[in-house]
Specification:
There is one protein chain. This protein has one domain (about 5-130). The radius of gyration is 15 Å and the shape is globular. Strand 1 (about 35) and strand 2 (about 40) form a beta hairpin. By secondary structure, the chain is mainly α. A two-stranded antiparallel ribbon has the order 1-2. The longest helix is centred in the middle third of the chain and has 25 residues, at about 65-85. It has helices spanning about 5-20, 40-60, 65-85, 95-100, 110-130; strands spanning about 35, 40. Helix 1 packs antiparallel against helix 2. About 65% of the residues lie in helices and about 5% in strands.
C-alpha cells in the first residue's frame, strides 16, 4: 500500500470523525455549535459519510484511485472553504443555495469555521498534484 493510499484511508477516519461530532456528548454547546464554532446538520453528516466512503474505496482500490480522490475531493472541499469565507455558507451541503449570503468576513471565527475544509482540501490537492502519475 502506497503513502497516498494510506493518506486516503486517514481521510476516511477524519471524515467519519467529522460525521460523528454531533453525536458525541460534550462536543456541541447549547446552541448546537460543534466546539462552539460551527453547526453541523444531517446534510453535513451525509456529505462527510459519503466522502469517507469514497476515501475508503479509493484507499483500498489503488494508487490511481487515491490520487483521483485527493485531487477531486481536495478541490471541492477547498473551494467550499473559500466560498465559506466569502459568503458564510458552502456549496457542498447546499447552504449557499438555501441561505442568504452573510458577506465576506475574515474574522477568526469565520476562519475557524472553514478551517476543516480549507485544511483537508488544501492538503488533499497538494498531495494529489504532487503524487506521481503512474
Amino acid at each position: 500500500m502506497t503513502q497516498l493510499q494510506k493518506l486516503a484511508l486517514s481521510y476516511f477516519v477524519a471524515l467519519m470523525i467529522a460525521a460523528s461530532i454531533n453525536y458525541i456528548p460534550g462536543l456541541t454547546n447549547d446552541q448546537g455549535l460543534a466546539f462552539g464554532i460551527f453547526a453541523l446538520d444531517p446534510y453535513d453528516d451525509a456529505l462527510h459519510v459519503a466522502s469517507a466512503v469514497w476515501a475508503l474505496a479509493a484507499g483500498f482500490t489503488s494508487y490511481r484511485a487515491s490520487r483521483v480522490f485527493m485531487i477531486l475531493f481536495g478541490f471541492a472541499y477547498l473551494c467550499d472553504g473559500i466560498l465559506g469565507m466569502f459568503t458564510g455558507y458552502g456549496f457542498l451541503d447546499l447552504g449557499i443555495f438555501t441561505n442568504e449570503s452573510l458577506g465576506a468576513n475574515f474574522s477568526v471565527g469565520r476562519f475557524l469555521a472553514n478551517l476543516p475544509h480549507l485544511g483537508l482540501g488544501g492538503i488533499a490537492v497538494i498531495a494529489g498534484i504532487r503524487a506521481r502519475t503512474t
